[in-house]
Amino acid sequence: MTRIDFYTHVEDKLPVAVQLIGKAWERGLSVWVRAADESLAVRLDESLWLQPAGSFIPHCRASHALAPETPVVIDSDGQEPRSHQVLVNLGHDRPDYFSRFERLIEIVSLDEADRQRARERFQFYRDRGFELHSHNLSPTP
Hints:
Blueprint: E1 3-10, H1 13-26, E2 31-35, H2 38-50, E3 59-61, E4 72-75, E5 86-90, E6 103-109, H3 112-127, E7 131-136
Parallel strand pairs: 1-6, 1-7, 2-4, 2-5, 3-4, 5-6
Helix pairs in contact: 1-2
């Protein structure tokens, strides 16, 4: 069954996503990133070229010919995932295919609308018996 991790109280989702993607890649896991829109996908793509400093996370867009062979794939077009280890959901809703993955990562910002949508996803997952974990990334204790 899919393990679901919610990372909450995040000021900016992008650096948190880059950090979590990097950790998964370092562990040899394939990562499918579901971006909310093209703008976010472009920003994430650019960030993965630059972060973490001094290293490179091999990645590409879902439409690229090398996507089936690339450990980190960014999708903003609703493509069918080619890997099923880690899903990073940066979309606004619950992906229909989330339960195919070993692990789902949800990153929740401080924005109230984002938090409300995340609460609804959390309740959906909980009501269906998925293993849920919350990680409060608030800068204040």
